[in-house]
Amino acid sequence: MRRKLVVGNWKMHGSLAQNKALIASLIANLHDLKNADFAVCVPHPYLFQAQALLQGTNIAWGGQHASRFEEGAYTGSVSARMLADFGCTYAIIGHSERRVFMHETNITAASSFGAALKAGLTPIFCVGETLEERNAGLTETVVESQLIAILNTLGTQVISEAVQQRAVLAYEPVWAIGTGKTATPEQAQAVHAFIRKQIAERDAGVAARVRIIYGGSVKPSNASQLFAMPDIDGGLVGRCSLDPNDFKEICRAAC
Ligand code: PEP
Questions:
Q1: Dihedral sign, CA of 246, 10, 171, 39?
Q2: Active-site residue 13, yes or no?
Q3: Minimum mean pLDDT range among 25-29, 55-59, 156-160
């Protein structure tokens, strides 16, 4: 039985004062929820604050990206080891907003996935198709190519490392992120099952264990139905993670 995981992605939101209030509400709202795992991925400058406030609670924290480079002359970048230095459990890797706005590719995202594993983090690797790709019947082709990039870039050995570090996959249809449009539970389940099948073809044990979470306008009104699907192991939540009551309802739906 896979334990569900709900991760808030704060994106580029927050301030020291706002975060303090939000984290205090999250701790109060989630402390009695024992049957799922919870995390927030915060902007990098606030990792120190997240670590200070969340240490010892049932809410883990993480970054929203990790450089594919270990260290060096990469102005503006943050390495996976730096995230680990601040006690991060997770790093979101290959989010579609980074693919679109920061020109990340399958190959750079796969390299960041490897760098996160090497630093001892649990990468949350995002895959998903655009609306045009879905309408052209290319959802499975696109998702498969995003997954295969990991194998091609890092080799099959990475699968066992990834499993040991409980790597997470996130199916995030690009057309559902931040748009208010959610994939129906059946649409999401179909892609989650496809992802699990792709992994099962390489290693059935890994496929049975890996958590595949759904992201794309998850909200209190749809979380329960999404999380009830057999291959959906939780959610990656953007907008609603900034509202402590919405996030609480979503987390409750995972328990
Ligand atoms: C996300 O940031 O990964 C996301 C799914 O955002 P939203 O919940 O706002 O669609």
A1: negative
A2: no
A3: 156-160
